[in-house]
Design goal:
Elements: H1 13-20, H2 22-28, H3 30-33, H4 40-52, H5 57-68, H6 78-93, E1 109-114, H7 121-134, E2 139-142, H8 149-162, E3 165-167, H9 175-189, E4 193-196, H10 205-222, E5 229-235, H11 241-252, E6 257-261, H12 271-279, E7 283-287, E8 295-297, H13 300-308
Parallel strand pairs: 1-4, 1-5, 2-3, 2-4, 5-6, 6-7
Antiparallel strand pairs: 7-8
Helix pairs in contact: 1-13, 4-5, 5-6, 6-13, 7-8, 9-10, 10-11
C-alpha cells in the first residue's frame, strides 16, 4: 500500500506495450465481432479484423482456422476469444522470440544496423549501446549515416550517454571507409562490440543497397567474418510496407534479426505477426517510446496479449 502523497510506481513495460497497442487492439474490435457463438459470420469478421491489423491474409486465415478448431458454432465469451486468439498469435511469434547476444569469441562483435530514415535506427543504436554498457561491455559506435549531419550528432549524444567512443567524420564522408576505420579503432581499443549506423536514404534504392554491400566488403578486409550481426530496424506505423523493406534489405545484407520501433500508438501492430510468419527472422527488440528503457527484448506471449487485449 502506498503512503499518502507517494507517487505511483511507473508503468511496467507490459503496461506501456498494452497502452501502445491499444489502437491495434481496437482495430481488431473483438467486442463488435463477437455476439455469442463462434459461427461462420463471427469467424469471417475476425479474419477481416486481423487483416485490418496488418497480420496479412494468409496468416490471418491460419490463425482463424486454429481458433475455430474444436470450438466452431459453440458459445464463447469475449474473454475466452481474446485468450484463445492471443494463444494462437503467440504460437506464430514464439519461434522468432530470440534474445540479442554478443558472441564473446568475436572481439569486437560487429553489428551493422540498417533501415530507412525515420524508423528510429540511430536512436535504436544508442539504446542498444546503453544496454551493452550496463552489462559492462566496452562499445564503439560508428556514425555511418554520413548523409545526415543530424544523425552523426544524434549518435554522438547517445555515445556520450552510454560512455561509448564514437567514430565520426564530416557529413558526406565515405561510409565504407568510416566503417573500416571504426573496426580498426574498436580492435585497438579492445572493445567487445562495434555498432555501425548506416544511411537510410540515398538518391535511389540501388544506391543505398550498393553502399551497404560496399560496407560489408570493406569490413571483411579487416575481419572476414564481419558483420557478425545485421539488424534491420522497422517502423510499425508503416504496416505492410515493412515486408517490402525486409525483402529489399535482405537482398543486400545477411540479415540476422529485426527490431520493431514505434509500436506506441499504431493501429498496425499486427505487422509483427506477418513478418514472423513470412521471414522467420529473429525479432530481438521492440520499442514503445523514446527513453532507453523503452526498447525491450521481444516477448511473444506478452506481445500477443497486448495486441488482442487479453489479460
Amino acid at each position: 500500500m502506498r503512503e499518502f502523497g507517494e507517487a505511483p510506481p511507473p508503468p511496467s513495460f507490459f503496461e506501456r506495450l498494452k497502452q501502445g497497442l491499444a489502437k491495434s487492439a481496437g482495430t481488431l474490435g473483438l467486442g463488435d465481432i463477437l455476439k455469442k457463438k463462434l459461427d461462420t459470420d463471427t469467424l469471417t469478421a475476425l479474419e477481416q479484423a486481423l487483416i485490418r491489423a496488418d497480420i496479412g491474409a494468409k496468416t490471418a486465415g491460419e490463425i482463424v482456422a486454429a481458433v475455430a478448431k474444436g470450438r466452431y458454432d459453440e458459445d464463447i465469451s469475449q474473454a475466452e476469444l481474446r485468450a484463445v486468439l492471443a494463444e494462437e498469435i503467440a504460437r506464430v511469434l514464439k519461434p522468432v522470440e530470440r534474445p540479442f547476444k554478443i558472441d564473446a569469441a568475436r572481439k569486437p562483435f560487429v553489428v551493422l544496423v540498417a533501415g530507412v530514415n525515420g524508423t528510429g535506427k540511430t536512436t535504436t543504436i544508442g539504446k542498444l549501446a546503453a544496454k551493452l554498457a550496463i552489462d559492462g561491455k566496452r562499445v564503439v559506435l560508428a556514425a555511418g549515416d554520413t548523409f545526415r549531419a543530424a544523425a552523426i550528432e544524434q549518435l554522438q549524444i547517445w555515445g556520450k550517454r552510454a560512455g561509448a567512443e564514437v567514430v565520426a567524420r564530416a557529413a558526406g564522408a565515405d561510409a565504407a571507409g568510416l566503417a573500416f576505420d571504426a573496426l580498426v579503432r574498436a580492435r585497438a581499443a579492445g572493445a567487445e562490440a562495434l555498432l555501425i549506423d548506416t544511411a537510410g536514404r540515398l538518391q535511389n534504392k540501388a544506391g543505398l543497397m550498393a553502399e551497404l554491400e560496399k560496407i560489408v566488403r570493406v569490413l571483411r578486409k579487416v575481419d572476414p567474418t564481419a558483420p557478425h550481426a545485421a539488424l534491420l530496424v522497422l517502423d510499425a506505423t508503416t504496416g505492410q510496407n515493412a515486408i517490402s523493406q525486409v525483402d529489399a534489405f535482405a537482398a543486400a545484407l545477411p540479415l540476422t534479426g529485426l527490431v520493431m520501433t514505434k509500436l506506441d500508438g499504431t493501429a498496425k501492430g499486427g505487422i509483427l505477426v506477418a513478418l514472423a510468419a513470412r521471414f522467420a527472422l529473429p525479432i530481438h527488440y521492440i520499442g514503445v517510446g523514446e527513453a532507453a528503457d523503452d526498447l525491450q527484448p521481444f516477448a511473444a506471449e506478452a506481445f500477443a496479449k497486448a495486441l488482442t487485449g487479453a489479460p
